[in-house]
Hints:
Number of helices: 9
Strand content: under 5%
CATH architecture: Alpha Horseshoe
Oligomer: single chain
CATH topology: Serine Threonine Protein Phosphatase 5, Tetratricopeptide repeat
Amino acid sequence: MNQDWEDRVAAAWAAFDTGAVQDASAFRAVIDALVAELPEDSPLGPFEQACAWDSTGRSDRAVPLYREALARGIDGYRRRRTKIQLASSLRNTGQAEEGVKLLTPELDAPSDELDDAVRATLALCLSSLGRDREGLSLVLGALARHLPRYQRSMTRYARALVEPEA
């Protein structure tokens, strides 16, 4: 889509995020109006609608829309966001195992600013499945990169949570 559309979507989200728009249905109506401007087969439509449902507490309504965005070929940065958000919504709807399957390959994807979000969401999915040590390992590994000291130690501790002792 064009930059004007992107700017209007960003403005709608900013208004929602700052509390300027507090009514969930009014916010979703704004997103729906913006989506109506897109070509019918655009993957951005279901993506933006899924995000709106998700952000207003309706993960159950978001899941099929995220799936549709993926099926329509959403790509790039938004594809990774879609997978992260879908995995989170799957966890919220009792389908954490599917979230783990969706996000695990993302651990080997090209690195970007969403790496830690992948790990955090995957850790939540693992925890929902009673696999807390694996989840904690992911979170510690992600955190280690941001520490001013102790990166090596925390990285080793994270690995030790999931690897057998040498």
